[in-house]
Amino acid sequence: MHxxxxxxYKYHENIVFTYLLLYGLTFLxxxxxxxxxxxxxxxIIFCIFLRKKQPLYLNYTNxxxxxxxxxxxxxxxxxxxxxxxGGSLSEYKSRxxxxxxxxxxxxxxxxxxxxxxxxxxxxxxxxxxxxxxVIYQFYQGDIGRPTGFxxxxxxxxxxxxxxxxxxxxSLGLHKSQLSSKLKIIFLLLFxxxxxxxxxxxxxxxxxxxxxxxxFIILSCIKSKIKAFSAIILLLICIVSFFAISPSSINRFSGxxxxxxxxxxxxxxxxxxxxxxxxxxDYPIAGVGIGNYHEQYMNNYRSPLSREDQAHPHNVLLTxxxxxxxxxxxxxxxxxxxxxxxxxxxxxxKKDVFSLAFLSCLLAFSIxxxxxxxxxxxxxxxxxxxxxxxxxxxxxxxxxxITFKQKD
Length: 407
What we know:
By secondary structure, the protein is mainly α. It has 16 helices and 2 strands.
């Protein structure tokens, strides 16, 4: 028993990190074991029983302290609005509190650059394998919304693309200190996903990547001739994949169509109007987290609406309608600080990790315009991934260091 304890003591960090890798590798499939929660609980147990001689310590800069303050304000204000509005505290916990394990686990698990890259690959590789399966499904005749082997909703897959693909391209193109082999791997993984995101037929992904990808290429390639050549080459590839997918062309042609016949677009306009009216009626604390659907269906649904929706398909309007000014202020403070912190770092350093996270943040914000992808029903995994990526960025900038005190 003593020997087993010594073995666990020696390798407990690797055990916890292995569970994190398993979380990344199984992110796209619905399994009963939540590896993120398991990793967190195991690490707590190890901290209590195995680290008496080597307790954990945190070193953090003011930048990380300000980030934590904005996170705390976010949770306090949204919780306060939930209590005032008579919202569901259990849904508040499920949607907002549970995913933040993606941040908290790094406060009690020492991480370094190698581990962070391995963890990111644990998300990127399955996503790319899934992309190959999406391509296979397309050639087998699935021209609707193929999701590969993922058994999650196609919009969750779309948000995963939003968070991962900009980072892939940034790491693959930037003249950083990453090894050439690793850059090639990231580029290949990115390229595999290009036809898949066309065939998956999620329009907001096309819009955000049309904005973000040229930004990344122009930021990474100093020669403007080479940069524009790369953009044109990528555009030719994208147009080629559209050309063999009539369903994608049809989806693309309807992006700006707000006619009643275009149900998806027209329905969003109706939902945005309903959510705005809901906020105007309950401006301070909203209708309460968990109460949107009942209020929408009973009091605010337009007679022209043809769908039963649980959220207004816009993150800002979701917070305004459910949490009012109180919760929305917390949400805005959080993202304003993240943009300020990231842009400041990128201007000063021009480093690959700042570019990658800034691109990810921009893509996430654009996606938030047409869907409720942050702290919402069905997107808990994406919210966890957002916290994971955000915290890893602070670690890579040496603004958070978790370490053990040596004897």
